Amino acid sequence: MTLDDDAATMAPADRAPAPARAAPLRLRGPSRLRARRLAPYLFIAPFFLLFAVFGLFPLLFSIWLSLNQWDAAQGLGAMRFVGLENYVVAVTDPWFRESLWNTLWYAVAAGVPQHLVALPLAFYIHRSLRRSRNFVVGAYFVPYVTSSVAIALIFTTLFSKDFGVVNALLPGAPIDWIGDWHWARVTIAFVVFWRYVGWNVVLYLSALQVIPQDLYEAAALDGASPWQQFRLVALPLLRPMMYFAITLTLIGNLQLFEEPFILIPPESGAMAHVMTTAVFMYRMAFGDGDFGTASAVSWLLFLVIAALGWGNARLFGREGRDDGAH
Question: Which domains can be identified in the chain, with CATH numbers?
Answer without folding.
Answer: 30-85 (no CATH), 86-325 (1.10.3720.10)
